[in-house]
Design a protein that fits this description.
Elements lengths: L24 E2 L4 E2 L19 E17 L4 E18 L8 E16 L6 E6 L2 E13 L1 H5 L10 E12 L18 E13 L9 E13 L7 E2 L3 E12 L2 E12 L4 E2 L2 E2 L8 E15 L2 E16 L1 E14 L1
Antiparallel strand pairs: 1-2, 3-4, 3-18, 4-5, 5-6, 5-7, 7-8, 8-9, 9-10, 10-12, 11-14, 12-13, 13-16, 14-15, 16-17, 17-18
């Protein structure tokens, strides 16, 4: 199969170094977020590049503007500022006609939150470490992939399928006496699946060369917090993007959502209203651009997310900036 890019471009390298941040999930006793590369994946999320090493840097900020209870909304105040680094290694192996990779992501964060200015509290420090222990991706090209003219960044017309297993490790700053924490003090196990489908533009050649739909779903299972004997119920989370590609430009909508599927427990007993189950949906615009510096490929991405619905979770709006390159 022809390589997805011949000159080492990042046409398919985004998924594992797609560092973003969704609204943090804040329970009465715990502060967590669904597992994933510092909060999310978006474009090209099921594609893997050729063997080698790839890295990313990210920074951004979020305003926290409210709190969704199980059946109401309350005004609130707060902010999140964050930065992170990611590394992806694609193995020089052919596994069942696909590629295999591993990754690791580290970051720092400051979070401030309160229902009023007087009750606002802050925490700073390292985030929990996320790793894709493994991901396997297989790309099935379409006829448009083989027939497109040569280009510095060929578009991967066709469908990519992904299966992976990720983990959050409790390396983040944590103090059981604090109401807000950056780290979680428990492990998260996250089997996940993904798809990226790219076809000729739905909007026609004036607006794009291709339309891409990407989605990656995580099934998050949490261990008990040994400091509090609190266990968060399993969460299903989905990151997605529907975008147009026009030359080196990619633009469209992205989003993330999650739903907790069973109760939180304290000493094995369900707690709170409906077990403190949390849910949220965040959507917003995305713009990305591929470019070269001294023949080294880069991709820069800007995305904004704002909450359109939530339960036992914060309302938020914010911006993420990400830069990815081949090392």
């Amino acid at each position: 199969m022809k390589e997805l890019f011949d000159k080492g471009s990042l046409s398919s390298a985004i998924f594992c170094v797609a560092l973003g941040l969704g609204a943090p999930v804040v329970h009465a006793a715990e502060s967590i977020s669904p597992a994933g590369p510092i909060g999310g994946t978006d474009i090209r999320s099921a594609l893997l590049p050729p063997p080698g090493n790839y890295g990313a840097a990210v920074a951004g900020g979020i305003d926290l503007t409210g709190w969704y209870t199980a059946d109401d909304w309350l005004p609130a105040t707060g902010n999140v500022e964050f930065g992170g680094l990611g590394w992806l290694h694609v193995y020089d192996l052919d596994v069942l006609g696909g590629r295999l990779a591993s990754s690791i992501f580290v970051g720092v964060q400051e979070t401030c939150f309160g229902l009023t200015e007087a009750t606002k509290r802050c925490a700073q420090g390292l985030r929990d470490t996320y790793s894709d222990i493994f991901v396997w991706s297989k790309f099935v090209p379409s006829a448009d992939f083989a027939s497109q003219p040569p280009a510095p960044i060929p578009i991967p017309y066709g469908t990519a399928f992904l299966v992976g297993f990720g983990m959050n490790f409790p390396t983040g700053a944590y103090n059981a006496e604090q109401g807000i924490n950056i780290g979680s003090n428990f492990y998260t196990f996250s089997p996940n699946i993904g798809i990226t489908h790219t076809t000729k533009s739905w909007l026609g050649p004036t607006f794009g060369d291709a339309t891409e739909f990407s989605a990656r779903m995580f099934f998050n299972f949490y261990t008990e917090n040994t400091e509090t004997n609190y266990t968060t119920g399993p969460v299903i989370s989905l990151d997605f993007a529907l975008t147009e590609r026009k030359g080196p430009l990619q633009y469209g909508l992205t989003g993330t959502g999650f739903r907790q599927i069973s109760d939180d427990t304290l000493f094995g007993v369900a707690v709170g209203n409906n077990g403190n189950r949390a849910s949220a949906v965040n959507i917003g615009p995305l713009v990305a651009y591929d470019f070269f510096v001294d023949q080294r490929p880069f991709n820069i991405m800007f995305k904004g997310l704002f909450t359109v619905w939530g339960e036992n979770n914060t309302e938020s709006m914010g911006l993420t900036v990400r830069l990815v390159t081949k090392l």
